[in-house]
From TrEMBL:
GO terms for biological process: glutathione metabolic process. GO terms for molecular function: glutathione transferase activity. This is Glutathione S-transferase. Residues 81-211 form the GST C-terminal domain. SUPFAM superfamilies: GST C-terminal domain-like, Thioredoxin-like. InterPro entries: Glutathione-S-Trfase_C-like (IPR010987), Glutathione-S-Trfase_C_sf (IPR036282), Glutathione_S-Trfase (IPR040079), Glutathione_S-Trfase_N (IPR004045), GST_C (IPR004046), GST_superfamily (IPR050213), Thioredoxin-like_sf (IPR036249). It holds the Pfam family GST_N. Residues 1-79 form the GST N-terminal domain. The lineage of its organism: Eukaryota, Viridiplantae, Chlorophyta, core chlorophytes, Chlorophyceae.
Length: 216
């Protein structure tokens, strides 16, 4: 029995966990749902949503933040030092503040989404991106979020930056990061991490083309 990641067939809230498991060499299987098949699975999920990580003994772990941290610990990608761990969380939460700004637009009629996202990007979104850009430009010489080695926080920021330029968020241009050079360089640095690069060489179709090196 291996781990199972229950989610839809896109990066979304499951991608950091998949990367952690993959980089850590921990075998896992994806269990993909569609809009048509999820209603049957929903009552089996602890909180009625995915992602859910099914452990080899059948226990089910919900909430992406918990799954990310658990898989990061299994893979040696969660800092042991308490302050470094807090630095990792700090950056992940700042990135989430930015991404959360855009989620309500998914519930608007399709023709209104692009305009709504452009307005967010010109206002609060820009403020958060500037903060993120400054934060990343002030990292130490190794350029990782939490000290001198890769952690799940680098993967979290990388996956969010890649998703936002992937075309899934209509209204947000694929060239967005040209205005934020430190974020662009950071995204490319993490995309070139051997374990990350290897993952997208294997899973680089569709949306995930934007997760490859030099896509931005
Ligand atoms: N806070 C939860 C949110 C999970 C969530 O919103 N999952 C969505 C997919 S991204 C879902 O399961 N939607 C189907 C539903 O709610 O029925 C997490 O981070 O895991």
């Amino acid at each position: 029995m291996s781990y199972k990641v229950h989610y839809f067939d896109f990066p979304g809230r499951a991608e950091v966990a998949r990367l952690c498991l993959s980089i850590g060499g921990i075998p896992y299987d994806d269990v993909f749902y569609t809009q048509a098949t999820f209603p049957e699975a929903k009552p089996k999920m602890p909180f009625g949503q995915v992602p859910v990580l099914e452990l080899p003994d059948g226990k089910m772990l919900a909430q992406s933040g918990a799954i990310e941290r658990y898989t990061a610990k299994l893979a040696g990608l969660y800092p042991e030092d308490p302050l470094k761990a807090a630095r990792a969380d700090e950056a992940v939460f700042l990135m989430a503040d930015f991404m959360d700004l855009f989620n309500p637009a998914f519930y608007l009629p399709a023709e209104e989404r692009a305009k709504a996202r452009q307005e967010i990007l010109a206002g609060k979104g820009k403020d958060k991106l500037q903060l993120l850009n400054k934060h990343v430009s002030n990292l130490g010489e190794d350029g990782y979020v939490a000290g001198d080695k890769l952690s799940f926080a680098d993967l979290g920021i990388f996956t969010s930056l890649s998703a936002i330029i992937s075309g899934v968020y209509d209204g947000i241009p694929p060239t967005l990061l040209d205005d934020y050079p430190a974020l662009k360089a950071f995204r490319n640095k993490i995309a070139n991490e051997p374990g990350v690069k290897a993952y997208y060489e294997k899973h680089g179709e569709g949306i995930r083309a934007a997760f490859k090196p030099d896509s931005a």
